[in-house]
Amino acid sequence: PGHGGMDRGATRGSATESKVVLGVSQKLNDILNKDPEFKAFLTRTDDRQLELHRRVKISAKSQADLFLSVHA
What we know:
Layout: E1 11-12, E2 15-16, H1 17-33, H2 52-61
């Protein structure tokens, strides 16, 4: 999930992009992990800021085949 922490992303009223995409990403993670063909994980699991280079490092360390950055 993109953004997080102090970097809220787009906002509309009380809704923030960082929280919306976290929820969407958690649901997608759960759906993918129900299929034994996938091993999905999130680079952030709460509303905290995580710089892109750290996200890429986490992905590379896990030898991921796909890095998906979710935004709204």
